[in-house]
Amino acid sequence: MAEKRVAKFQTKKRAEIVYGDDDRITHLPDDILVDILSLLSLKEAVCTSVLSSRWHNLWKQIYRLNFDPHSSLQKGTQQGFESCKKKREKYVKWVNCVLRKHKAAILKDFIIRLRLSKTFEKDVTRWIKFAIVRHVQRLELDLTTDDSSLINCSLPQELLTQNTSSEIDLKFKSLRVLSLKSVDVTEEDIKFFQSKCPMLEELVVDRSLKLLNVDVCGGPSLVLKHLELTRCYNLKSVKVSAPNLTLLSIHGSHSCLKSVKISAPNLTSLTVQKVESLFLENVPKLVEVSICRVYSDVSAKDVFSAFACCDFQLEILTLEMKPFEETFLSTILQLPKLKKLVVFVLGDESFIFRKSYASDTGLTNLMKTAPNLQEFVLNMQYSDALKFTFIRYDKMKRFSHQLLKVRSFFHQHLKVFKFCGYCGVPDHVEVLKYMIEKCVALEKVIIEPCYDKLYSTEESIKEQVVKRLKEQVPQQIELVIL
């Protein structure tokens, strides 16, 4: 009898707990519910309006608006251009409808990623004004299209003039992150953002065709930490003097930028592409550098010389090099603190099949330049027409170039070697062999094969490549084939 009473009591207690948990969300204040809704996608937040009369207007107070219809419009692309165009127009109307109903006075994020051209400039202008009036903190517009013939939208000049009212000026003061992609931005626009946005920490400009010369200079009051100028195809020069800048990325046009001058005492990461004249000063914290210049006429010597002022402090270095240029690196730079080196090489017959690459004038010099290197990535970039003849395993010895007859040199710290674009041809095998024998601390080899560059891509050839790799790499070294 006693056992029955205990069971009855336990059952009742469980029922009370379940009943109490059933409706807790209803008792939360509206502010908390708006916080929760702001974490959802916009369509999910709007859908909650059907839950009850209390929820009907809650979504209109969310402070994050993210319009990114990529997945839905991607389906339209597969159905044809006209279908995609109609879907895009329909989505623009939906954005306008949402903004008309939205009631929040403050916006933290306003993000639109939609492929639009100048045809929709009135809508884009309306969206920008909507965000600025609500003291937006993060404003991102990505209007990138696949059609290069379409004309970019421009920023609304009635907002971006030095003569704007003090009321409008105040609304820009909250802006912290500004990203404009496939939106035409001018030098005057950037000056405006510098002067009117005192809290601006991140500025990204991508595919702006009107940007010619950029001058971002200021004293301690300039809080900008992150600056990206990418694919601005008419960009000629950049001058940056920013005391708080930590990341700078400059990818100019198909032709070279004429001049880039940088002074940034807190800069830690720098990416530059095809610059004729690069001048660095006051960059004591710079530790990560990426240089792209393969398809330009700028000499390796000139590029490497620009970093002579900070080579001793670099920890991560990414280079794009032409054949035979690796010898310049060791004569100009010394990299005692370098931990990771990534080298992209434009491959052709003169590079792949020359006997000197793993000799003192090639890999050895690269390794000697960075005695404390821990990770080395060799990425071969091939022209579309280049193809290799795979040498079968039983005939491999006849083609050995004996590249390993190098003066006594062993690297003591390299732990990871990654070879991208590996085809299993004799010179690739020799390079891998060299790295295994000369890097005494090697723990891991990562191979990313490139089978489509072989004249024959039949499965038996792929199996031969994998078999050869497994036999070449010792068991104590981890082998990863991607």
Q: Give the N-to-C terminal Cα separation.
A: 68 Å
What structural category arises from helix and sheet content?
alpha/beta
The tally of helices reads 14
The biggest beta sheet is recorded as: 15 strands, parallel
Number of strands: 21
Helix content: 25-40%
Strand order of the largest sheet: 1-2-3-5-7-9-11-13-15-16-17-18-19-20-21
Shape: globular
Query: Low-confidence segments, ≥5 residues, pLDDT <50?
Result: 1-20, 74-81, 349-360, 392-406
Work out the radius of gyration.
Answer: 29 Å
Strand content: 15-25%
Mean pLDDT: 79
Structure description:
This protein has 482 residues and is α/β, with parallel strands linked by helices. It has helices spanning 2-21, 30-38, 42-47, 70-79, 81-101, 121-133, 166-172, 187-196, 300-306, 326-332, 349-352, 363-369, 426-438, 459-472, and strands at 64-67, 109-113, 138-142, 153-154, 177-181, 183-184, 202-206, 213-217, 226-230, 237-241, 247-251, 257-263, 269-273, 275-281, 288-292, 316-321, 340-347, 375-382, 416-422, 444-449, 478-481. The chain has a 15-stranded parallel sheet. Helix 14 links the parallel strand 20 and strand 21 (478-481). Helix 4 runs antiparallel to helix 5 (81-101) and helix 10 (326-332) runs parallel beside helix 12 (363-369).
